[in-house]
Amino acid sequence: EDKVVQSPLSLVVHEGDTVTLNCSYEVTNFRSLLWYKQEKKAPTFLFMLTSSGIEKKSGRLSSILDKKELFSILNITATQTGDSAVYLCVLNNAGNMLTFGGGTRLMVKP
Amino acid sequence: EAGVAQSPRYKIIEKRQSVAFWCNPISGHATLYWYQQILGQGPKLLIQFQNNGVVDDSQLPKDRFSAERLKGVDSTLKIQPAKLEDSAVYLCASSLQITSNTIYFGEGSWLTVV
Description:
The structure holds 2 protein chains of 2 kinds. Chain A is mostly beta strands. Chain A has no helices and 11 strands. Chain A has strands at 3-7, 10-14, 19-26, 30-38, 44-49, 56-58, 61-66, 71-76, 85-93, 98-100, 104-109. Chain B is mostly beta strands. The A-B interface holds A 4, 31-32, 34, 36, 41-45, 48, 50, 88, 92, 95-98, 100-103 and B 4, 31, 33, 35, 40-45, 48, 56, 91, 95, 98-108.
């Protein structure tokens, strides 16, 4: 059975800090790993990772995948209060079945 | 491009009552998903459709939950009778094909069972 574990469960930082969110996984047939940001409504797509070692970057957010060690990280630099959300790591297997991690709740204080 | 539409956005019912949620996926998306997200947890897949066929419903509590996608476009999820533990957000999502990597979510239907 595919599995996704995220850490930490929650995190409180101050504006301007840099945070690293962790995601480890177990999968039989890997297709991709996805990161989503969830505020009060639907998860919004951040990144899709399919290859090891290639960093995906969007503004202050970046993510990288290690398929050998079976983990991914999501980095947020110079955090802002608008970054406060739950960040979901999602595993997509070859059958296009999604397995969600429990999420990391990030709170950024002014 | 219009996103995944869901209704109602919010619903409060008493236990043992029934409720139905509707989802209209992005136009042309063949794959449709229903997820249940309980507060503080990640979404859990209830059922996945490919066009009007069920791909996976292994985690759907079939004694009380049912879902259909008769014409392969929009879908309804029904709970009958509801229990207190069904209080959750029900997220509908769609993707272009079963092989697509990116899945788009609706805004969710928030259910409270009292």
